[in-house]
Specification:
216 residues; mainly alpha; 9 helices; globular; C2H2-type domain-containing protein
């Protein structure tokens, strides 16, 4: 009848059996690297009904702690970090191990309320969050924002670790190499071209090793 037609829910293009209102938004970190975040229940399931709820999860789980840029030690808050930095004994410079998460500047952007966001759909807001968290990813690399449940057929239907690592490397390796090169450029005083030729192979090997630890 007429009333039932008004209450009928639209169907998702991604799943003909699941209505749009039943779809839940996925954690972007889990979407991008499900192997690493599989053990975090809040990242994996049951998902988030709104992007606002998703952001609450991001602030709780993925906001990076304050970190000393010299020794890479992390601290519980900015006060203890400042105390560490003011210590006259100083600290040793150590190689930075990439931490997966987002920093204070990205947090500020996530919390920013722009007028242009008022008319955005929840899906558009999710993609905006993804762009802030992973600015080096291209538009074609942005996944669907929704949790994708596999049918219970006795098989997971999930890609193998090799396939997932290949995809993870494709996204992460360029960014990791660039970040490592920038660190080398800041530290080296001798002619840059000669130094890069000497260290390029070692840099790539270091980045590959870091990728493995980040993926596991």
């Amino acid at each position: 009848d007429g009333d039932s037609n008004k209450r009928r829910r639209p169907f998702s293009k991604a799943d003909g059996k699941k209505s749009v209102v039943d779809l839940r938004f996925a954690c972007p970190f889990h979407k991008r690297n499900p192997g690493r975040h599989q053990t975090f229940t809040s990242c994996r399931d049951p998902g988030f009904t709104t992007v606002a709820r998703l952001k609450e999860h991001l602030y709780r789980r993925h906001l990076l702690p304050p970190q000393c840029h010299r020794c890479c030690t992390t601290f519980t808050n900015d006060v203890t970090l400042r105390e560490h930095q003011r210590d006259p004994r100083g600290c040793d410079v150590r190689e930075q191990v990439p931490l997966e998460g987002f920093d204070k500047e990205q947090e500020r952007r996530l919390k920013s309320k722009k007028k242009s966001q008022v008319h955005q759909t929840e899906e558009e807001k999710w993609k905006g969050v993804y762009r802030i968290l992973f600015p080096d990813d291209g538009e074609a690399d942005i996944p669907t924002p929704y949790i994708e449940y596999q049918p219970c057929t006795g098989q997971t239907g999930e890609p193998s670790n090799v396939v997932r690592f290949q995809e993870f490397s494709r996204l992460e390796l360029p960014r990791l190499v660039r970040r490592t090169l920038e660190a080398v450029i800041e530290q080296e005083a001798q002619p840059l071209e000669d130094k890069m030729k000497e260290r390029l192979v070692d840099i790539v090997k270091e980045c590959q090793s870091q990728l493995l630890s980040m993926f596991q």
